[in-house]
Design a protein that fits this description.
heterodimer; A: 3 domains; five-stranded antiparallel β-sheet; 9 helices; about 15% helix; B: mainly alpha; Cytochrome Bc1 Complex, Chain D, domain 2; two-stranded antiparallel ribbon
């Protein structure tokens, strides 16, 4: 930087500072206040006796020039959205390299999860792989075992699909009762993005399947060398090998340069950093389908290969991290619903803990095995509410209550908790995760 | 009961596994950092194998191993509030780490300072060690790293860097590219047998995929103590929150089931397969096939399923069944009683108004800062 330039930028900063100090008014303090706590928004007022300085005075951002075009070659969220971030629960696991963090569902709207906010689950940290160094192999019961480069993959016909990915352990901490206070933590192991990818069937055809080819074993290139057994019918039905999410290359956290997409099935099967698929005639019973991802029942038996993620929903706002700050009157209740078996047909919302239900408005777009956004616009009387949502999918499966699941499975299943969630909204607008009668 | 087993092993000083010997040998022969190019950015990636036990950075905490901020600029074994072994404290006797001593330590910690708590096999490649040392040197005592050394680039540097790194493409007429014969779209190339063999390490319950080999529980115990026990505990009981591997028999119907290889896992092949592909955590694929046989045998022994003199091999592998195999069933969720086909209730679904039975705040386990 030349001295002249340095001077100029220093004096601009000084001017900015002065501007803030000079307008040391209510308006300015709200503005700076929101720098500190990005979620704090100015409360809505029924009346205003003094003219608002935010309106009557010229604000810094009205006057001083902002950053030019090249300041943010890869854009980033507004500085006022600093708390829309993934968060982890440190006590859950021994080490952050084999751990999980959670999507901030309470901060999001619509159905697409921004790539940088998709929850992460790694078993050996994030593998950083140059696409030039990545190789993908198909071997086993095929006519020709093959090796592909990323360039080879880009020459297959590709398509775009929106799918949710939910970890089978999502809501797993809630089997014994209300534990974590926020839908980010109770339901944040789900994300929903648009994938660009190649149908797995194209790749398998290229290698040529033998007649006894019944199962696949995808394997990751990360230090866990993640593996899962997948039946051939699923692979040929709708599995993709994705290279892109939300229009750009996959994020490293999500398996760059390629991951498996297994629509509607538990997230652990969507092997990231995919480097190999073996074709076989029987399942392999890998660690992630025996020690983990099997559902222990009360009688000591354990279900295995519980692949489908069943119908589920949650109110994302109001919720413990998104309390009602505006008092009684018009209130938007919104949330997400999804089913690994197809589209969502209907979502009902209750404000009295499941005594009475109102069908919510299902917003577009509606894709199979994708999350759906629902809204219920109500006139809140300011009295306490027990908010619940109940989703029904196109096959008619109704989201069960947590107690129905507990009665059927006991408390030690860990996985596949798709029970109805209750949020207690107090008369001051604060919200808590509760279990009710 | 388990304590008894443990002393059986430590009373056998004669048993030193081939594995530990190899490490010792390499450690002695490569004691000095030669003129290999030291690249801190590569070191940062290599540090992945250390980060299960060590943290660096301004927020670093002691884990099983001490914080390594500024370790190359300070006295050996001097991080505050960390309980070092006497073995390491006495080794350099208050002196600073040098390139040479650090290189020797990282090559074979347990032979460099016998009795050290750093139960880690060591880094075999001289170049990797040099890169690691350069990386450690780039981190100051506050945990900040000099950007140039660690390859952390700011946004604009990154984009220009990438642009200039593009290798100049040699353009060739498209007709000069060979098109393979196989398949429908003629994409990819045939995999070579050696390539398939290098990656195809999966093992099935029926024994398909098992390599030829063998290993005894005795050797397995030595290996386990050296490279597994720091996380999984001397008896497989799991230290801290690291996974538990042994015990828990007959607890599956209890309030807090303990799911271990002995109490829960259906197949032994999964143990062999998983340890070979993913363990030790942070140093995957470092064990030989026979090492994995030995450790698998020892894990069976820790679970009371075989005797101490048991040897597991590709020949007797399929004869071992795990006790819980029969208790796994197919997915029958759709048969659950609560599933009704009728329309769900819409109004007056319960007589009494809802009453709170349990609150998340009482437990207070939600992280701060929402």
């Amino acid at each position: 930087m030349t001295d002249g330039k340095k001077q100029a930028s220093l004096s601009r900063r000084a001017a900015l500072k002065k501007g803030l100090l000079a307008s040391g008014s209510v308006g300015a303090s709200i503005a700076t206040g929101s720098l500190l706590s990005s979620s704090a928004q100015a409360a809505s007022h029924a009346t205003q006796s003094q003219p608002e300085k935010l309106i009557t005075e010229v604000q810094d951002w009205n006057k001083y020039l902002g950053d030019g075009v090249d300041a943010r070659p890869y854009g980033r969220p507004s500085q006022f959205e600093g708390d829309a971030v993934r968060r982890s629960v440190a006590w859950l696991t021994a080490d952050p390299k084999s751990s999980v963090n959670f999507t901030p569902l309470h901060k999001l709207d619509g159905i697409i999860t921004p790539s940088g906010l998709c929850f992460e689950r790694h078993h050996g940290g994030i593998a950083e792989i140059s696409p030039d160094d990545h190789r993908f192999m198909i071997n086993g019961l095929v006519d020709n075992p093959l090796v592909f480069t990323m360039q080879d993959l880009a020459r297959f016909p590709r398509e775009n699909r929106v799918y949710f990915l939910e970890c089978a352990a999502n809501s797993g901490m809630e089997w014994r009762g209300a534990q974590l206070n926020g839908c980010q933590f109770t339901h944040g192991m789900v994300h929903n993005v648009m994938y660009t990818g190649v149908r797995l069937s194209h790749l398998l055809k290229e290698a040529g399947l033998k007649s006894n080819a019944k199962w696949l074993l995808p394997e990751g290139a990360d230090p866990s060398h993640m593996t899962r057994s997948i039946p051939m019918e699923k692979a040929l039905d709708d599995c993709l090998i994705a290279t892109h999410m939300n229009g750009e290359a996959l994020r490293p956290e999500q398996g760059y340069p390629m991951r498996l997409v297994v629509p509607g099935w538990e997230g652990n099967m969507w092997v990231k950093w995919l480097r190999r698929i073996e074709v076989g005639d029987k399942p392999w019973h890998q660690r992630e389908e025996t020690s983990k991802y099997t559902d222990l029942l009360e009688d000591g038996l354990a279900r295995r290969f519980t692949w489908e993620m069943e119908v589920k929903s949650v109110v994302t706002s109001p919720s413990p991290q998104a309390p009602v700050n505006h008092g009684r009157g018009q209130l938007v209740i919104t949330g997400l619903a999804w089913s690994g078996l197809g589209k969502i047909k209907r979502v009902d919302v209750s404000i009295d803990g499941g005594r009475n239900w109102t069908t919510a408005r299902l917003d577009e777009p509606s894709f199979s095995k994708s999350v759906h956004r629902f809204y219920l616009d109500i006139n809140w009387d300011g009295k306490e509410m027990f908010l619940q949502s109940r989703a029904i999918d196109e096959l008619g499966h109704v989201q069960p209550t947590k107690n129905q699941l507990r009665a059927a499975r006991g408390l030690n299943s860990i996985y596949h908790n798709n029970g109805i969630q209750t949020w207690h909204v107090r008369n001051d607008g604060s919200v808590e995760n509760v279990e009710i009668s | 009961m388990l304590t008894g087993k443990r002393s059986l092993f430590s009373n056998q000083p004669g048993v030193i596994s081939k594995y530990v010997l190899t490490v010792l040998f390499i450690g002695l022969s490569n004691g000095i950092v030669g003129n290999v190019s030291a690249d801190a950015a590569k070191g940062k990636m290599l540090f992945g194998q250390c980060s299960g036990c060590h943290q660096v950075g301004p927020e670093a905490k002691h884990l099983f191993g001490p914080i390594l901020n500024g370790v190359m600029q300070r006295e050996a074994a001097s991080a505050p509030d960390y309980a070092y072994s006497d073995a390491l404290k006495n080794k350099l006797q208050g002196g600073n780490w040098s390139d040479e001593s650090m290189d020797a330590f990282l090559a074979a910690p347990m032979s460099y300072a016998p009795g050290t708590k750093m139960a880690f096999v060591g880094v075999q490649s001289e170049e990797d060690r040099a890169n690691l040392i350069n990386y450690l040197r780039s981190i100051d005592t506050d945990g900040n790293s000099s950007d140039a050394a660690t390859g952390v680039l700011n946004e604009s540097e990154q984009s220009s860097e990438n642009a200039s790194n593009e290798p100049p493409q040699e353009r060739r007429p498209a007709t000069e590219f060979a098109v393979p014969e196989h398949g429908v779209l003629h994409l990819g190339r045939l995999a070579l047998a050696e390539e398939v063999q290098a990656w195809d390490i999966d093992v099935r319950p029926d024994g398909v995929g098992l390599p030829v080999g063998q290993g005894s529980a005795t050797v397995g115990g030595e290996l386990y103590d050296a490279v597994c026990a720091s996380c999984h505990g001397d008896f497989g009981e799991g230290t801290g929150r690291w996974p538990i591997l042994a015990g828990g028999m007959d607890t599956l119907t209890e309030e807090r089931p303990e799911k271990t290889i002995g109490s829960y896992w259906p197949y032994l092949s999964t143990v062999y397969d998983y340890v070979r592909r993913a363990m030790p955590f942070g140093n995957a694929r470092s064990l030989s096939d026979d090492d994995v046989y030995a450790i698998t045998a020892y894990l069976l022994y820790l679970n009371d399923l075989v005797d101490e003199d048991f040897t597991l091999s590709s020949d007797n592998f399929s004869s071992i069944a795990l006790p819980n195999e029969q208790n796994f069933i197919a997915d029958n969720r759709l048969e659950e009683a609560f599933r009704q086909s009728s329309e769900p209730c819409m109004s007056n679904c319960a007589d009494e108004p809802a009453v709170v039975l349990q609150r998340a705040r009482v437990l207070d386990v939600t992280p701060e800062g929402n």
